[in-house]
Amino acid sequence: MSRTVTDVICPFCGTLCDDIEVVVSDDGKELHEVYNACAIGAEKFLHSQAKDRITRPRMRQEDGSWKEITYDEAIDYTARMLVNAKKPLMYGWSSTNCEAQAIGSEIGELVGAVVDNTATVCHGTSLIAVQDIGIPSCTLGEVKNRADRILFWGCNPAHAHPRHMSRYSIFPRGFFTGKGHTGRKVIVVDPRRTDTAKIADIHLQVEQGRDYELFDAFRVAFKGEHLPDVVAGIPKEKIYEAAETLKSGRFAIIFFGMGVTQSLGKNHNIDAAIAVTRDLNEYTKAAIMPMRGHYNVTGSGQVWGWLFGFPYAVDLSRGFARYNPGDTTANDLLRRDEVDAVLVIASDPGAHFPFSSVKKIYDLPSVAIDPHETPTTEVCRVHVPVAFVGIEVGGCAYRMDNVPIETRKVVEPPEGMMTDEEFLGRVLARIKELQGV
Amino acid sequence: MAEYLIKNGFVFDPVLGIKGDVVDIAIKDGKIVETTEVKDPKVIDAAGKTVMAGGVDIHAHVAGPKVNVGRNFRPEDKLFTYKPRSGVERMQGGFSVPTTIRTGYNYARMGYTTVMEAAMPPLYARHTHEEIRDTPILDQGAYPVFGNNWFVLEYLKNHEIENTAAYVAWLLRATKGYAVKVVNPGGTEAWGWGLNCENVHDPVPYFDITPAQIVKGLIEANEYLGLPHSMHIHANNLGNPGNYTTTLDTFRLSEGIKPRSKFGRDQVMHHTHVQFHSYGGDSWGNFESKAPEVIDYVNSHDNITIDLGAVTLDETTTMTADGPFEHHLTELNHLKWANTDVELETGSGVVPYVYSPNIKVCAIQWCIGLELALLAKDPMRVFLSTDHPNAGPFTRYPRIMKWLMSEEARRQQIDSFKHRDKVIEATNLAGIDRELDLYEIAQMTRAGPAKALGLSQIYGGLAPGLDADVAVYDFNPSEPYAPDDIEKAFSSAEHLFKTGVQVIRDREIVSNGNKRTLWVNAKVNENPQVMRDVREKFLRYYTVTLNNYEVSGHHYIPNPYVIEVDATQ
């Protein structure tokens, strides 16, 4: 016999879909089917059922082989590593719940760590731009109910946030948007003809790395001022047309992704993007939103915001919080040899950081806390497998529009496995013992 | 729990009517008790010092999404403010938008023990509660916003008070909220289209209703339920020259309505940060104070309470659910602007602001805040606030006390204004010689707000049976003092007890307390129509499902204090 759990939250991307249905065995030990989720989300749920899943901590030996250790040994190793380090890096946090993030933050305070999250290689530039110029934004329901002009810039939700377009942005029928897709104009700015671009009314195939120019051209076009014949590879007529499309809407929204946060210009691109949105508010209503990747990268920025006042790259090593991206960011610290231990949790820098950074992690005392085997777990000295947040344990997560949703536990973790929160809680207690506080 | 006896202090307590007499205060099992009831107490020598109940803040923005936007988008607010971890104190920083940790400690240092978060977007209730959870020491509650909520707009269009009340009760329970908050009624919904409602009869786009109908209807729904607090409003037209007429129009909506609450309050409307709503003139050129007109109304109508929203002449971070106002402000000062519109519910904005004593308008605003307090006839209905952090950070409360208690301090400030003569001409403050005493300060900061919140059965005084929230300040009211002595003494309580736990000893924080979250559970009769409406709206227009909306779980509210209301009769 089996039973269906409804209203389940998908712990994959920042879209944080909360209408997933999961079929589990009656005893709650096995997960059989996943409905409503996208292919990636469904795979995340089903992957928790892998028969070859690692369920106990393990330590890499001199010869490169792995030896199973107990959770107690892993807790002691982690606590000692952090206490003995002068400046440990605690990186990741984006695929776990806010409760674990809050405990991790206190650990960071006690041991004088640098805490950084995956925004550092993703929307960190957006966070810097927001500090420069602010951000007029909204919740995704405002987009669903009001928006008739949708602009995707440097992002490809068809692949990266597969249900975004159907749940929130292009296709849904909302209160003031009863015609759904046919009542909306869609603009995509992307050098590639992506699957998202294919369904757009206007596709501006911007020259690689020229986003800043094109944003500025929009601001000129809104005012009806003169543009050169071609800007960033786009004929001016097309820019005027797109600008007029945005201005003539009742509610315009700009979604932007790593195509514009991590290309030439970085935070300056986002400054310009937000300035475009501000300008649009002179003519109509407009909002802008980053397409956040991990399902709770937004949450870690929130937790550190209320505890430390900064959303990422927080250096606690001097006893107070310092924030200086480019200096206190994970890659910069690793490549400058400024950290002497690394704890990675709920992320995979091994797959996403430059090789030079990954090599530094390999050389340092290091712990990876992750339910999966990843490139990161393979380079760290200790791998602590934990229960999947949102599948085997609940907890709070923040959607890309900062809306917090309580993820749900739908199935039991393999017997004897810890959660991130439990593991970090035990590490915190052990650190207090070691430090005598 | 330890017993305490606070001996020989000068006690100021409006609940017991003690005006500076030397009285001993005893604490046992978290409560104030008769001195005969403690057997072997720890004795606190308060001779030559001032003793009051713990402060109660009725209106501040201290937790939640817009507060965190303020923190995260203003790294400059942390400059030169950071304090390392030490003893029981965790790392803390920030000036106008402090971290949650600092918020708890800094309120405690001022002798405050209860603080209400003034605007909680219901969809973001979890966030608000997570921040409240991580704010040490203070008892806190949060007011969900209702004035632009689609359910409310639709019910009140047809004057369906019972349905509105049922929905209010449902939302308070779902969000673990404390009171009915209204911000720019109708105007924030209009902001969904880039528009606004500037007076109480401006129609709300599409919804075919006016702010006046929303306000009146929500007062009636509030009284239908008999909630502890009254409807709590930030009216339309905030911050604009000439807006005092809108304020008076809003006040008048309460006329003829009597409170139907068992919680001891006398008002049906609390109007917040009235300083921002007492402006005359029709431009920034002829901007002037209309505080006397506004406070005259309050003085002569006993079913209204207000708080000041006093300007403190600092650089700060404005934040409000009044989305169109913040857009207006960023157009004015060209500083960075954050905005979030929240589906079916509300909106918000955040903009930094500098209240410079060299700017005439800022100096006039400063005068207006103080005029409201000094012209008030009943300090039990006019409460000290800065609308933190909007008119200034809450850490300036002791400075406001100094200004209210000392004409000399006010004169010094006025004399330092760049546009002194123009400011004097546009205001009334220079002609006011009243100096408030500590009893009146205790009314404005303890007994009054506790009563208006419907919490006078637990907070606001030193009568036996009340929670043992007690502050001891190093201030001797029987000896001559300089104005600055007031600010210094009330910025740093010598001792503070929170529900019987000593959290400050000799000016050191020695405990993170045992904070509670207050929320109101209002029981109403089953209302199938409202529940059908809720289900339908969630299905069609919200982006979270109904089953994922309610805030539940120990980790959001680890230590709840639930106030039960029965409106089923």
TrEMBL record, chain A:
Residues 53-276 form the Molybdopterin oxidoreductase domain. InterPro entries: Formylmethanofuran_DH_bsu, Mopterin_OxRdtase, Prok_molybdopt-oxidoreductase. Its EC number is 1.2.7.12. GO terms for molecular function: formylmethanofuran dehydrogenase activity; NADH dehydrogenase activity. The keyword Membrane does not apply. One of its GO terms (biological process) is methanogenesis. The keyword Oxidoreductase applies. This is Formylmethanofuran dehydrogenase subunit B.
From TrEMBL, chain B:
InterPro entries: Amidohydro_3 (IPR013108), Formylmethanofuran_DH_asu (IPR012027), Metal-dep_hydrolase_composite (IPR011059), Metal_Hydrolase (IPR032466), Metallo-dep_Hydrolases_sf (IPR050378). The keyword Cytoplasm does not apply. Keywords: Oxidoreductase. Coiled coil: none annotated. Gene3D superfamilies: Urease, subunit C, domain 1. Its EC number is 1.2.7.12. It comes from the Archaea. Pfam families: Amidohydro_3. The keyword Membrane does not apply. It is an enzyme of class 1 (oxidoreductase). GO terms for molecular function: formylmethanofuran dehydrogenase activity; hydrolase activity, acting on carbon-nitrogen (but not peptide) bonds. Residues 42-483 form the Amidohydrolase domain. This is Formylmethanofuran dehydrogenase subunit A.
